[in-house]
Design a protein that fits this description.
heterodimer, A: mainly alpha, about 65% helix, B: mainly alpha, 5 helices, globular
Chain lengths: ~500, ~110
């Protein structure tokens, strides 16, 4: 049999790939921006693919063609061999060696995995190290989605959920299909595992939300079963099917068995607190809420409002007079001042609690301490946004008062601004136009541009993400000038081949 | 999950280290009672008596050290600060706050 190799289409494809990975650079910005370097390619892995895996796949195709003539069989053999050769090292490293506690061997196997982009190659290694143990984060790393997962996992292992919150904020508006496959599948699974190990299924569900893939689907189903009301029974068939299809079945089997056997209700289901707290319980309720906030558990606005009403009753005129009398009995030099110091101290603690409130906080119906707390919280949230926005007001890139850090560090800072803005908007949805015209417009639009001017191609991805967010905000407040600018900036350095 | 609030943690820690809780005394205890209890606890801690190293709070048991006992005594020697601690200690014990000492009975 004669095997035809379509040389012309292969050459055309190679030329197209070469031109595509060069990327295009069309920033809608003023000032010099260094030109794109194109996509960086890991040399060893590319050569490995071209000199080993591709010839092996061709050999399989030739062998299949010899055994059973026909293009279909040889094509099938070529395709299957190539897919197996390319995916086997990843599977072996991520699903077998890493979970089995062999991180060094896993990293070595990852070197054999073919990879087109250097960023992806480095990202795989760093994420693997963060998940299964290994070397620390490199000092200089450009902003890509990979380091955000690495940072989140590393901070999680240090006991801080800040990295996870920033990452989830980033993923909240980013379509998962624009994430590298490894991240939207195993990256999200890795984020959820610490919460699953702690039995915090609510948190696990939150972390699994942006993920895709069979593993994520199984964990999401498990979380849904743990959070469903006791009266509802989970479907054993669906759960078993999801488990059979999912990877790492050895590790998830115990979770599936537990879910099917116990069918538990929510582990830490909160008992609805009464809206009015009896006077003698106010202190203990206050302590309970402080403990919740200190542990990072959610506090509702209703809890804080009820507590504020309770304190209003306790700290009234009658309570103050009792305090003054007692201060005099104790021999305080200024009994009134000693008694008056109590209310501001309690209010300061209530403010700390109000700071920890998650979600919407509608304006309380009647004036009082609760309304005051809400107003102060809004002021603080607004101030947090303004603190980041202020350097952009009245300054160009040349006179920008703050030294711009690396793109990765700047993106972390930008995500913090996004979190602050989200908290502000969840408290008061009408705050966006106010914040926008108070300088957020300038910060959101100029920040990526300044970053691009300072760092050039290393900031392309950061610029695109930041500008896309700015465009979304501009559409919400209907600002055509910023929509146009940000849309242009969100295309900067975008490669036609690897659209993310 | 929200980030743990460091400010709330500080407030919580301060309340759980309320001098009356540390010294295991009723909020209306006299100055002499405070000093006697402080000296007794310090002696027990110096002798490494096991039960003296732990005290109860509304959020469970906590460790007690000689430094905490000394700090508690120092806090309660200041009438203005004692007033605040007394108010919190009574509230956390579920009692009506700051009733005059003449009307109060010491706990058993």
């Amino acid at each position: 049999m004669t095997l035809f190799i379509p040389i012309a289409p292969i050459l055309w494809a190679l030329v197209w790939v070469f031109r595509a990975i060069q990327g295009k650079s069309a920033p809608q910005t003023k000032g010099y921006v260094p030109p794109s370097r194109g996509t960086q390619v890991p040399v060893v892995q590319t050569l490995l693919f071209l000199l080993v895996y591709l010839p092996l796949a061709l050999m399989a195709a030739i062998y299949a063609a010899d055994r059973s003539p026909g293009f279909a069989w040889s094509g099938l053999a070529f395709g299957i061999t190539l897919v197996l050769l390319c995916s086997a090292p990843y599977w072996l490293a991520w699903r077998v060696l890493g979970p089995f506690g062999l991180p060094v061997l896993g990293r070595l196997v990852l070197y054999l995995a073919p990879c087109i982009e250097l960023e992806s190659f480095q990202g795989n290694h760093e994420l693997f190290s963060a998940a299964f143990g290994g070397r620390p984060k490199p000092e200089r790393w450009t902003a890509t989605p990979w380091p955000f997962f690495v940072i989140a996992l590393r901070r999680e292992s240090e006991g801080s959920a800040e990295g996870v919150d920033q990452l989830l904020e980033f993923l909240a508006v980013r379509p998962p299909r624009r994430l590298p496959r490894r991240l939207r599948r195993q990256g999200v699974e890795l984020l959820a595992w610490p919460a699953i190990r702690k039995g915090d299924w609510e948190e696990a569900q939150r972390r699994l939300a942006p993920g895709r893939g069979r593993g994520v689907r199984l964990l999401r189903r498990l979380a849904a079963i743990h959070l469903m009301p006791e009266s509802q029974a989970p479907s054993a068939f669906l759960l078993a099917s999801a488990w059979l299809l999912a990877p790492e079945r050895r590790y998830t089997l115990s979770l599936v068995r537990t879910a099917l056997a116990r069918r538990p209700a929510r582990g830490d289901r909160r008992v609805e607190e009464p809206a009015v707290i009896p006077e003698k319980d106010v202190w203990l309720r206050h302590l309970g809420l402080l403990a919740r906030a200190a542990a990072g558990r959610a506090i509702s606005a209703a809890d804080v409002e009820a507590l504020a009403r309770g304190w209003e009753a306790v700290l009234g005129r009658k309570g103050y007079m009792r305090l003054v009398i007692r201060a005099a009995e104790l021999g305080a030099p200024d009994a009134q001042a000693a008694a008056a110091a109590l209310r501001p101290a309690v209010e300061a603690e209530l403010e700390a609690l109000a700071e920890a409130v998650e979600g919407e906080w509608p304006e309380p119906a009647r004036p009082g301490l609760a309304r005051k707390l809400r107003r102060r919280r809004l002021d603080r949230l607004f101030a947090a946004v303004q603190a980041e926005v202020e350097p952009f007001r009245g300054h160009s890139f040349a006179t920008f008062p703050r030294k711009l850090d690396t793109p990765l560090a700047e993106m972390e800072r930008w995500l913090q601004l996004r979190l602050s803005l989200r908290r502000l908007l969840s408290s008061n949805a009408e705050a966006l136009p106010t914040a926008w015209h108070n300088g957020l417009r300038l910060a959101a639009c100029n920040w990526p541009v300044y970053l691009l001017q300072a760092h050039g191609p290393a900031a392309y991805w950061a610029c695109r993400e930041m500008s896309a967010w700015c465009e979304t905000l501009a559409r919400e407040v209907d600002d055509p000038e910023i929509i146009k600018l940000s849309h242009g900036n969100s295309q900067v350095g975008r490669s036609r081949l690897f659209r993310r | 999950m929200a980030a743990p609030s460091a400010e709330c943690e500080n407030h919580l820690r301060r309340h759980l280290a309320n001098p009356f809780l540390v010294l295991e005394l009723a909020p209306g205890a006299s100055r002499d009672e405070l000093e006697r209890q402080g000296a007794k606890l310090l002696a027990m801690l110096a002798a490494e008596v096991r039960h003296a190293t732990i005290y109860s709070t509304p959020r469970g048991r906590r460790d007690r050290t000689a430094e905490m006992v000394r700090a508690a005594l120092a806090e309660l020697r200041d009438p203005a600060r004692r007033l605040i601690h007394e108010w919190w200690a009574q509230g956390l014990a579920g009692q009506s706050p700051v009733v005059s000492s003449r009307q109060r009975k010491l706990p058993e």
